[in-house]
Specification:
Number of helices: 17
Oligomer: single chain
Number of strands: 2
Radius of gyration: 21 Å
Strand content: under 5%
Structural class: mainly alpha
């Protein structure tokens, strides 16, 4: 039997991702409609590649497989950079909003699963199969899908649990990238919100030409790169300590914690006046973080194998259409209002689609697209990663276990 799989080497995959990111950036610069709704640049290039590989599979029976090993390292760099720009004082202020967002996300998990189970029953499938197109694959992402699918197959007799989960995660990831920007821009216009116009972004640089041309030196980037590497090393150590204590966290959460520790311990040790000596590194951190996040999402989307949706397409599309509508309505009518009805809450709302349908990375890339146009939202970039990357995984596991009986 002939093997029609075409494997793309890691260096080639990485180079192709750069080209796709350039493609996405050029499309956003060219079409005002994409800028108006803050469509993330990596989404355009990544989906273009995924569509081309799907055409090759269906038309020529060629399966393209990319070596994307470097992708996970890019995510670690990105979250280490977020931590290195995080002031502990903003984190303390985010205590109450963080709790509110966690409660809202936990309630949404229940609604998400009830919807999936209801549609599954309507299609004549076991109701618990709907959980794979609920919070298992959407809020949980691919990691949660891979963890729960074997249990659903072995203990509940849902043989296609893995296929359902991967399909749900694929469509959810695409939808999450597309709804965040439009939601935030709708809320800003509808409620006449005043953007911050703060150019000191956690990720990237503003789209305004006046601030985007701020000079940056060689040392700014090199200094930032050094601190990022130190944060990654400390994050690895934190992760090992937690594992030895019986606590499992995603590696990017440990890197985020390490970045926060380094920044705030330095600030306390040498004083804020001397921190100005390396303030230029903040620009370097923002630049490197922007590149890493853009490359990560581009590589995540270009690696999607859309043909895997074939066998369960009708069921998946029905559930996911309803899930997206539920997410939009819940975000606009509940999340935005409960988080304060201000500019910060509109940015958090843009990230909620990433929490509900995609991943932490999609939440951040949605917020990045909005803040690059309207200004920084410092609290949003603290509480959303913490809710996405840590607390919500615990709540999700408890709810899945309760509803599935596994």
């Amino acid at each position: 039997m002939q093997d029609n799989t075409f494997h793309v080497h890691g260096l080639v995959s990485f180079t192709l991702a750069i080209m796709l990111l350039f493609t996405g950036k050029s499309l956003v610069q060219r079409y005002e409609l994409l800028r108006r709704y803050s469509i993330p640049e990596p989404v355009l290039g990544g989906l273009l590649c995924a569509a081309i590989t799907a055409v090759l599979f269906f038309a020529l029976d060629i399966e393209v497989s990319f070596d994307l090993e470097v992708r996970d390292a890019l995510l670690l760099y990105f979250f280490a950079g977020i931590g290195l720009k995080s002031d502990i004082r903003n984190l303390v202020k985010g205590g109450r909003p963080l709790l509110i967002l966690l409660l809202l996300a936990s309630l949404f998990i229940v609604l998400q699963n009830l919807l999936g189970m209801g549609v599954a029953s309507g299609f004549g499938l076991p109701a618990k199969a709907g959980l794979m197109l609920g919070s298992v694959s959407l809020t949980g992402g691919v990691g949660t899908t891979l963890a729960w699918a074997p249990l659903f197959s072995e203990r509940l007799g849902i043989d296609n649990a893995m296929e359902l989960g991967i399909a749900g995660n694929t469509v959810g990831l695409i939808a999450a990238c597309c709804i965040g920007g439009p939601i935030a821009n709708h809320l800003i216009r509808r409620h006449s919100l005043t953007p911050s116009h703060d150019p000191n972004l956690e990720v990237g640089v503003p789209t305004s030409e006046a601030t985007a041309t701020t000079p940056m030196s060689y040392y700014d980037v090199l200094w930032a790169w050094m601190w990022l590497n130190l944060a990654l090393m400390l994050g690895h150590g934190i992760n090992l300590l937690l594992l030895n204590s019986g606590i499992t966290l995603p590696a990017f959460v440990s890197c985020l914690m390490a970045g926060i520790l380094i920044h705030n311990l330095m600030l306390g040790a040498i004083g804020s006046h001397r921190m100005k000596q390396w303030s230029g590194a903040g620009q370097g951190l923002a630049l490197i973080s922007d590149i890493c996040l853009g490359m990560f999402l581009t590589m995540a989307l270009m690696g999607l194998q859309l043909w895997q949706l074939g066998g369960v397409l009708a069921f998946v599309l029905t559930v996911l259409t309803l899930q997206v509508l539920l997410t939009v309505l819940y975000t606009v009518l509940v999340v935005f209002r409960c988080m304060g009805r201000n500019y910060e809450s509109s940015v958090i709302a843009s990230g909620f689609g990433g929490i509900a349908l995609g991943s932490t990375a999609t939440a951040i890339v949605n917020m990045t697209a909005v803040t690059q146009r309207h200004g920084a939202a410092h609290q949003a970039f603290i509480i959303v990663p913490l809710v996405c990357g840590f607390f919500i995984d615990i709540a999700n596991a408890l709810i899945i276990g309760l509803l599935s009986g596994v």
